[in-house]
Amino acid sequence: MMASTMVEPPAAADSPTLNKIKCSGAITIGYREASIHI
User: Fold this and answer.
1) Is 16 in a helix, a strand, or coil?
2) CA dihedral sign, ordered 15, 20, 21, 27
3) By the 8 A CB rule, do 18 and 8 touch?
4) SS3 at position 35
5) Cβ–Cβ contacts within 10 Å for residue 2, how many?
6) Which residues contact 7 (CB under 8 A, 6 or more apart)?
7) Per-residue pLDDT of the chain (38 residues; tens, 9 = 90+)
8) What per-residue confidence (pLDDT) applies to 25?
9) Which is it for the CA torsion 25, 28, 29, 30, positive or negative?
């Protein structure tokens, strides 16, 4: 599941929408990890 989100075509890497998804995804994952550690 993790690996599939990391792999993407180079052409799509510069897409603003994808960047937005990436950013919110990173925030969600970071929040989850923080919650687990707390």
Assistant:
1) helix
2) positive
3) yes
4) helix
5) 6
6) none
7) 455 455 555 554 566 776 676 656 666 766 777 776 65
8) 66
9) positive
- Distance, CA of 29 to CA of 38 (rounded, Å): 14
Residue 28 CB-half CA count within 13 A: 7
Indicate the pTM of the whole model: 0.27
Give the C-alpha separation, 3 to 16, whole Å: 21
The pLDDT value recorded for residue 17 is 72
Q: What is the C-alpha separation between 14 and 17, in angstroms, rounded?
A: 9
pLDDT recorded at residue 29: 67
